[in-house]
């Protein structure tokens, strides 16, 4: 017996150490666990100094000094240290069974306990034990005798732990301090045994395990639409991914088309350059040819006039008067003849440097558009009845987002007309161009 007491005292001391908060040095009250896995009382954590960093508050673990981010709701939002709560229950039971004669019933609080309920973690007297077995919500609880608890607890303290080894949540009503073993369907909340006789008296309630089975099935059933949406969204994501690939591929094809189109336009421009260069040379050569003829005529006339001028001047300087007078008539006739032949006005340049390049580069400023058909609008013009041909004519134009008309290849246009209420027989149509760019006649 002495060995048992010694073992019991040793076990209690070890539990005392594990249940002592390192801050307040008393048993844990509402223990919380930090991310570094050290536990403290909630009120101890609330008393620690805080450090603010970028609008976020941090507290330093008193044991390892690791910084823990403080939840917006405060220290109470840290995870509950369920293991310590279970140890407290074991410790409480061990203290009681350490002196079996002093163990009283946790229900009626007066009679000596004779048994223990592992589901409720309560010691029961003989009368309460009998009621516990017969009452529906607790009829399936695991009960054991106090003697077995007394004999076994020193070697197996877990015997006093809740039967399912689950963390027990305690009722929030201060005077109850009972585990939340029931679920009130009327109020949609978990309650303790004492609550069934108080604020929840007359309500529909059941054991948490039974309610859990029922409500978990409801939740699983409610998941079906969610799962259906998930599958549908997965298909949508797959379609979006596939369409993304198609659009990227089409974009690359458009870029290649633009490159090919520009290359062809460059080739056409080079051809136009050669053509315009030849035209410029022909015009230049033609004008220079006329000018060259005028220059030759002017040079000949100038040479004749200069020869006569030199001859007359030389005669006046060197010849004797009789000789000059004798040849005067001949020189006068020659000067008159040559002067009459030379028409100075006709020898002025007939050609002008007036040739210009007539530029027509409007199309180069807008060589195309990359648009989606859904962005375009088709406009139908007024209908015109042609009695002789028995035809109806109307105009069709395709308007781009910038309100400009699109000009497309005539071969790429198709127009089908279906009369209303006369089946699906289409009316034959012919598409032709009009005088206005981008406007077609149907």
TrEMBL record:
Keywords: Metal-binding, Ubl conjugation pathway, Zinc, Zinc-finger
PROSITE patterns per record: ZF_BBOX, ZF_RING_1, ZF_RING_2
Protein name: Uncharacterized protein
Taxonomic path: Eukaryota, Metazoa, Porifera, Demospongiae, Heteroscleromorpha
Limits of the RING-type domain: 21-65
Residue stretches making up the B box-type domain: 100-146, 166-208
Pfam families according to UniProt: zf-B_box (PF00643), zf-RING_UBOX (PF13445)
Gene3D superfamilies the record matches: 4.10.830.40, Classic Zinc Finger (3.30.160.60), Zinc/RING finger domain, C3HC4 (zinc finger) (3.30.40.10)
GO molecular function: zinc ion binding
SMART domains: BBC, BBOX, RING
Highest taxon of source: Eukaryota
